[in-house]
Amino acid sequence: MIWLEIFIVLGAIFIRLRSGGIGIGLWGGLGLAVLTLGLGMPVGTIPVDVILIIMTVVLSAATLQACGGMSLLVHYAAVVMRKNPQYISFIAPAITWLMTIMAGTGFIVFSTLPVIAEVAKESGVRPSKALAGSVVASQLAVAGSPLSAAMAAMLTVMEGNGVTFFQVMAVCIPASFVASMAAAFVSSRQGCPLQDDEVYLQRLQDGLVTKNDIQSSDFGKGAKPSIILFLLATLIIVLVATIPGLRPVYDNGKSLSTRDLIIITMLASSCVMLLIGKIKPDAITTSSIFRSGMTSVAVIIGIVTLGTTFVDFHLQEIKDVAGDILKAYPILLAPVLFFTCALLYSQGSTTPLIIPLAVVLGVPNWAILASFIAVTGIFVLPTYPTSLAAMEIDTTGSTRAGKYIIDHPFFLPAIIGIIAGLGFGFVTAPMIVS
After folding, report:
1. Which of 159, 186, 350, 397 could form a Cys-Cys staple with 199, CB 3.0–4.6 A?
2. pTM score, two decimals?
3. Using one digit for the tens of pLDDT, what is the confidence trace for 250-274?
4. In which element (H, E) is residue 347 found?
5. Total structural domains in the chain?
6. For the segment 34-60, what is each residue's pLDDT rounded down to a tens digit?
7. How far apart are CA 53 and CA 258, in angstroms?
């Protein structure tokens, strides 16, 4: 029977590769129906806390975008990059890392890719070096952002296991930065000079190397205030979550949870941005961030619940097989996170599935935090949306996939970046978390 169950779970996951987007969650829902209604398995843990946090963070980020705040941030990023074009291969990844840390989603890189490609071409730098490094850095930052879907799942589990918000951030933020800069360095060493690239020279001869259209004129009166409000909301979350004395304490002795803190702060900031920006609410729900964010919610409901249903039902067998191994060699959690993410194509779906299991199997808290950077396993194939966008936006043809599955400019920077982040995490995490 277990082989039939595994076939159903993997079948739903592999079929979703052709569906993409919200179809991933729908196929997960069908697999869940077969396991529960067809085979009589009890429904597994539904990550409600994670879903609530994601929805409110996405709502706030989408409001920021609707107010013009995202476009203004991209404008500021472009100014910085154009002032130092010779260092574009490192400045661009650092900027996309920071923007993801602030916004909680790596998809924010979409709006910066045209700028990065143009600045690289203007300065004579092979665009693939800056583009690949920036795309990888933006996703590695997901493992460090206090507002990302993956971090929401991590915080929910780890705080319930006695690890504080500050401890999680103290390990994960610097680990993600180290990983991003290592990835940027590797990316900067990839490929021949642009003027020696045969593909580029052929495209130049054919007139295919064109200038990207970069629009950055009127951002609206609410753009700058919305950025300030969003950053202020993020700062409030970090301060209150880090300093226990700032949290409200109730009559029953309990204090405000980090989940509720994030939900309340994000909802309130969204409302204030709506008022100050004087935008229509429909502008929020039609924004690209809202659509992609709510798609991730559907994916988590379907795929993660499918996974937890199978895992919860066979938890004892999993403990018997993997428990002692992971206790003795906790670094093995890293490849588990990496390959699960490569399979699910989502950090937000991988984290609520694997991290609770790691806690149950007895993996030390410090090892879980140190391994978390490995949740960025989405660059095995060059088919992630941000990777495809980078290849499409680069009219020089330097950012391209090769003849083989992993022969593309994102794979090696991501792998080396993750290894560097793991090295940093396994050195520092034991000093911060017991």
Report:
1. 397
2. 0.86
3. 888 788 888 899 999 999 999 999 9
4. helix 347-360
5. 2
6. 999 998 999 988 888 888 888 998 899
7. 10
